[in-house]
Backbone:
């Protein structure tokens, strides 16, 4: 069956390979898309072509598109939407395209976990799962694991005659706790979940240990990897001896050595032949290994340098052979087999514990109605397959067949990061075999860097080897090698390195012509685009023998060198090509990224860069628990949980929260030297004070204990998040840290703690103790809570990020730092190791002697894991190099550059492109690989005066390699520190700082600047009469200092049933004003009539019943019997509730000094009543202030009080009426309903 490929349209922008990936169909297709080859664009275009085709178009919801992240899924939907909109603009009458736009939001474009969730929600009834299940938070899952583990181990400890379990405990736990066993159970459980049949995989762990004394080790699965390692070491020794023989046979070489070296070669050849024979014979041959002494070479006929070099090569070969003998073949085969037999019950017990834990953990999750992400995959797999009762093999279920019918094609992005469970799911929803299938996979195995997340790159590699370019025999593979991201110089450099480094044995794939990056961009030519390698040569001090201190200094030196280069880039300037404008532009800080393997030393790098004026930022997710503010708050929470903890209590008392000094703490301790510090604190508070200092300390202690008791009460009654926020408020610690250097980040840390507490309590767990224990577990595991600070793309800073974080991104200028830092191989030396193929292996612990030995399976897995680790590191290096668009800098710091170069020299003489397996396998850092590769380049050969094979040395790549003395960088820092020291000394002594610059006058001007209209910042543009009245009454002559202030709202309200129902005085006054506004002045206004009118106001809902009840009817009736009330009723013109707005000069209202002439303030108010009679306009303002009780029998005092309080207000009212109405106010009165008297306002 031929693959169907539509012809590429004329004038298409796609390359032939890209169009093949877009248009091919009819079988499973694997697209090996190199870095920068536009794989996402190709994937989107393939979808668009399928959806918008004029013939045979499919609906978007008939495609299953699986992405690696939710962000990628959202981006893909957005791209498809934009493409559909463009196509719809060309074909506006297409109902099919309109339908696609409506279907797009519901299309199956998501992560595989999201797809699994949809499957489970649809078929939940096939599982023992509540339909209301939810995905648990990571915190909840971790806490639940702890509970289940404790329950499991408690059961095991309580079983009688459980000798096997106690043997496991004795072998794999410490004296103080069984934490190591708990970690082993959880690790093995989580590892098993990456297998489609985790229970079967666990049950099969013991199969490797089914041996007896007659078993030939050669037949065991583990033997293959040990034999592979032995073959590699023997080949390396043979190569070294051959090279030594070549030197010995040179004209001035040590010819007497030649015969001995030939004997060595014969011995190695015999050992290589033994590799295919029985294991016992190979063991005996290695045990008999013996290197004879070299004969003497004296005289002028022999070159001393060649003698030393020949000896050195032979010594290296001897060390390899002896290490092979002493490590891998140290024990007799019968001993290996006996250890494995004795390990079998141990492994059986561990596997049984893990299987029991899995059952209990699933039951606990099911009881709570929760699932985790691993469950999503396994539940989905359970729904999509069934076991054939006859053959026992897995077959697609009816649900899987429905999905196969639903989806015309299954498209998978980032296929290289798929695991075995995910692969099983994909195989169940796709149709047909590889030759007739509909699975479209895109990825780049060279960028598979997530093996630590149990991704399986071999899935991609197996298909890549099996599929063919034409797809005739099965699936089709398509290579997208054209890179549209980077300059030619970056691609040539990357190709030069990986053609020598990446191979089948070490690297898991061959970097052949198909894998090499092809230049596809169209950058303008430039001379300074070659990658630069900068090796800092730092002479290590004799006393400095700690690796950590060495790495610390290396990071600082590299940061200084990068700072120097970045300054050159920005100031020289360096131009980068802007594709949006099609023109070059000056490089900015945001065009630069510093890539590191881990963020361990990122804070030092940021410090060094910022010290030289370079803005830098990193998404730091570590160091959170070490932050002072978090340490203090956690100590306080520990004390609230249990005050009988001396260290947290002392830390809290000594902290800025309570400020006890060391003398006060000593005073407290002396009150009870033998009890806990909390008991001493309580005793100290009760004892009689002998000095004033003791009395002061006792008051502080009493205040602390009183607060502590309140907090402990709240911890029992309220939520944890509420407690933490109350701690922030009560101690004002949140505000305090905000005023410290880095205050914003410190406050963000405290908010993160509060958010984590809320997140914790959103789970099924509660309580301060459990939360603190969870935090302690996080710290023990080395996890952190630090949230990365997101940076916008436009923020002009140099970014520091891990290589993993940079995957999928691109940057004009890339610095790759820390290349000499050793690979992280600690996991290889763990007491136990796990492997998907070989299973579980651990050290054998002698039950009586308590001595542990490595077992044969452990050595095999160590060997296999080391090669896998090197392949992963090689791919990580590839990802780092391919992030650069225009310029690449590689930095390393070594103790002795000359020695490093000497180690690389031997690689120069190697024939062919690919370096020998053992050379690449012996690498301890990226620099070991890069150095050995570059020494073979014409630009690197000058470092050691070596000459490499012409085909390698003449590669078109160009390199700039420099050895930078560390003294140059240290000198710059020393000069800066000397200057800083002088500045600090001057500040301490109160003298002028001995530093001047051209900006001194400008700085002084800016620091002493004052706003010329500062007084006007206190003036409102609009103000009510009431506010003006209040500020004059409160501040008098200080009116210019007044600023409106609103008191804080109460944090908590009383419950409604405890709140009083009575109206406030202000509410009563408002009710009376409503009545006075709406009374019919023509009707009789006695108490009965007024009561009737109020009742009508309640009916019209102008007044509530409570307000009507609160109105003083007698006081209103009294007003209308007085002279002023009778005049109002008889007036020819009445205006009630008269609003006004009046512009007045600001200097008049607030005092003229400092006010700008002509500045006006808009004054607003409402006048209660204005009427006109034969005497003219009369203005009345009603007052309900309580004055009779305050000024009993003193009506004149009451009148003066009202005038002083409301005189300003009345004068402004009068002015408003006279200016706006252009009429004179003849009389102006205040009427007090409390007392029923009139106050005339002049």
Residues:
């Amino acid at each position: 069956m031929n693959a169907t490929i539509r012809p590429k349209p004329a004038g298409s922008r796609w390359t032939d390979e890209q169009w093949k990936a877009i248009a091919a169909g009819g079988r499973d297709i694997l697209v090996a898309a190199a870095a920068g080859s536009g794989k996402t664009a190709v994937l989107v275009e393939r979808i668009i072509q399928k959806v918008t085709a004029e013939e045979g178009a499919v609906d978007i919801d008939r495609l299953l598109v699986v992405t690696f992240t939710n962000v990628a899924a959202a981006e893909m939907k957005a791209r498809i939407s934009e493409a559909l909109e463009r196509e719809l603009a060309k074909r506006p009458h297409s109902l099919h395209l309109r339908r696609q736009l409506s279907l797009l939001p519901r299309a199956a474009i998501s992560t595989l976990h999201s797809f699994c969730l949809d499957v489970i929600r649809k078929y939940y009834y096939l599982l023992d799962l509540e339909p209301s299940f939810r995905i648990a938070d990571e915190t909840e899952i971790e806490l639940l694991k702890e509970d289940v583990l404790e329950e499991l181990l408690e059961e095991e400890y309580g079983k009688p005659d459980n000798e096997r379990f106690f043997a496991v405990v004795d072998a794999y736990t410490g004296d103080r706790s069984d934490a190591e066993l708990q970690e082993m159970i959880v690790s093995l459980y989580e590892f098993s979940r990456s297998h489609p049949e985790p229970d079967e995989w666990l049950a099969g762990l013991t199969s490797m240990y089914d041996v007896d004394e007659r078993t030939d080790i050669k037949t065991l699965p583990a033997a293959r990897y040990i034999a592979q390692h032995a073959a590699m070491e023997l080949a390396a020794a043979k190569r070294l001896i051959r090279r030594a023989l070549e030197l010995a046979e040179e004209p001035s070489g040590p010819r007497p050595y030649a015969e001995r070296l030939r004997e060595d070669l014969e011995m190695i050849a015999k050992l290589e032949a033994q590799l295919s024979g029985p294991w016992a014979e190979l063991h005996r041959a290695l045990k008999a290994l013996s290197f004879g002494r070299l004969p003497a070479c004296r005289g002028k006929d022999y070159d001393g340098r060649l003698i030393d070099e020949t000896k050195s090569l032979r010594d290296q070969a001897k060390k390899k052979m002896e290490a092979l003998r002493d490590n891998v073949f140290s024990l007799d085969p019968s001993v290996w087999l006996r250890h494995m037999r004795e390990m079998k019950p141990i492994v059986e017990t561990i596997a049984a514990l893990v299987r029991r834990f899995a059952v209990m953990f699933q039951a606990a999750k099911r009881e709570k109605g929760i699932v985790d992400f691993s469950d999503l995959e396994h539940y989905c797999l359970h729904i999509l397959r069934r076991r054939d009762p006859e053959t026992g093999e897995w077959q697609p279920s009816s649900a899987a067949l429905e999905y196969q019918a639903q989806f015309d094609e299954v498209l998978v992005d980032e296929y290289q990061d798929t695991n075995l469970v995910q692969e099983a799911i994909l195989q169940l929803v796709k149709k047909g075999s590889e030759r007739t299938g509909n699975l479209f996979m895109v990825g780049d195995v060279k960028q598979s860097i997530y093996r630590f997340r149990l991704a399986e790159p071999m899935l991609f590699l197996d298909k890549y080897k099996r599929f063919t370019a034409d797809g005739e025999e099965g699936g089709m593979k398509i290579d997208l090698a054209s890179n549209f991201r980077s300059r030619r110089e970056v691609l040539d450099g990357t190709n030069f390195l990986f053609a020598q480094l990446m191979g089948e044995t070490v690297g898991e794939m061959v970097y052949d012509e198909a894998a090499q990056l092809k230049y596809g961009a169209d950058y303008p030519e430039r001379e300074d685009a070659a990658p630069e390698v900068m090796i800092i040569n730092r002479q290590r001090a004799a006393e400095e023998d700690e690796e950590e201190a060495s790495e610390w200094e290396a990071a600082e030196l590299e940061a200084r060198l990068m700072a120097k280069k970045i300054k050159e880039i920005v100031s020289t300037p360096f131009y980068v090509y802007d594709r949006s404008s099609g023109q070059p532009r000056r490089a900015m800080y945001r065009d630069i990224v510093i890539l590191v393997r881990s963020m361990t030393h990122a804070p030092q790098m940021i410090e060094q860069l910022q010290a030289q004026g370079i803005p830098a930022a990193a998404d730091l997710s570590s160091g959170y628990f070490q932050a002072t503010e978090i340490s203090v708050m956690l100590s306080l929470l520990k004390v609230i949980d249990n005050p009988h903890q001396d260290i947290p209590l002392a830390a809290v008392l000594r902290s800025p929260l309570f400020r006890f000094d060391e003398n006060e703490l000593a005073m407290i301790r002396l009150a009870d030297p033998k009890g806990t510090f909390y008991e001493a604190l309580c005793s100290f508070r009760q004892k009689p004070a002998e000095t004033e200092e003791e009395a002061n300390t006792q008051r502080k202690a009493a205040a602390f204990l009183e607060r502590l008791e309140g907090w402990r009460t709240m911890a029992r009654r309220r939520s944890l998040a509420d407690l933490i926020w109350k701690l922030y408020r009560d101690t004002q610690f949140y505000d305090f840290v905000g005023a410290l250097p880095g205050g914003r980040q410190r406050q963000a840390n405290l908010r993160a703690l509060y958010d984590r507490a809320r997140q914790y309590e959103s789970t099924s767990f509660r309580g301060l103790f459990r939360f603190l224990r969870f935090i302690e577990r996080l710290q023990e595991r080395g996890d952190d809570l630090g949230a990365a600070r997101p940076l916008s793309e436009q923020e002009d800073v140099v970014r520091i990020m891990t290589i993993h974080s940079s995957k999928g991104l691109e940057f004009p200028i890339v610095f790759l730092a820390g290349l000499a830092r050793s690979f992280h191989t600690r996991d290889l030396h763990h007491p136990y190791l796990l492997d998907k193929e070989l299973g579980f292996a651990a050290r054998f612990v002698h039950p009586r002697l308590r001595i542990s030995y490595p077992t044969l399976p452990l050595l095999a897995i160590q060997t296999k894991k080391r090669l896998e680790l090197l392949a992963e590191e090689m791919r990580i290096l590839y990802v780092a190099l391919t992030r650069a668009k225009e310029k690449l800098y590689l930095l390393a710091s070594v103790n002795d550059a000359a020695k490093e170069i000497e180690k690389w020299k031997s690689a120069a003489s190697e024939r062919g492109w690919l370096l020998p397996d053992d050379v690449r396998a012996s690498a301890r850092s990226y620099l070991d690989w890069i150095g050995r590769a570059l020494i073979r380049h014409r630009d690197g050969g000058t470092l050691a005066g070596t000459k490499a094979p012409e085909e390698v040395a003449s590669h078109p790549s160009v390199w700039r390699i420099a050895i930078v003395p560390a003294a140059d960088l240290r000198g710059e820092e020393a000069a800066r520190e000397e200057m800083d020291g002088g500045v600090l000394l001057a500040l301490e002594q109160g003298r002028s700082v001995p530093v001047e610059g051209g900006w001194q006058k400008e700085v002084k001007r800016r620091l002493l600047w004052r706003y010329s209209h500062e007084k006007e910042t206190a003036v409102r543009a609009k103000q009510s009469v009431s506010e003006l009245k209040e500020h004059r009454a409160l501040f008098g002559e200080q009116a210019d200092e007044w600023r409106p202030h609103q008191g804080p709202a109460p944090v908590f309200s009383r419950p409604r049933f405890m709140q009083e129902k009575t109206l406030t005085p202000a509410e009563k006054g408002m009710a009376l004003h409503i009545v006075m506004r709406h009374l019919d002045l023509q009707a009789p206004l006695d108490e009965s009539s007024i009561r009737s009118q109020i009742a009508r106001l309640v009916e019209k809902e102008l007044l509530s019943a409570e307000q009507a009840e609160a109105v003083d009817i007698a006081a209103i009736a009294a007003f209308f019997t007085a002279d002023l009330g009778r005049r109002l009723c008889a007036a020819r013109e009445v205006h009630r509730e008269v609003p006004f707005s009046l512009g007045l000069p600001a200097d008049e209202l607030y005092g003229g000094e400092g006010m700008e002439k002509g500045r006006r303030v808009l004054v607003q108010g409402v006048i209660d009543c204005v009427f006109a009679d034969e005497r003219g306009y009369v203005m009345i303002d009603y007052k309900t202030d309580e004055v009779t009780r305050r000024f009993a029998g003193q009506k004149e005092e009451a009148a003066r009080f009202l005038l002083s309080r409301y005189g300003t207000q009345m004068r402004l009212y009068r002015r408003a009426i006279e200016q706006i109405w252009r009429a004179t106010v003849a009389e102006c009165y205040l009427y007090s309903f409390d007392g029923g008297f009139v106050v005339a306002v002049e």
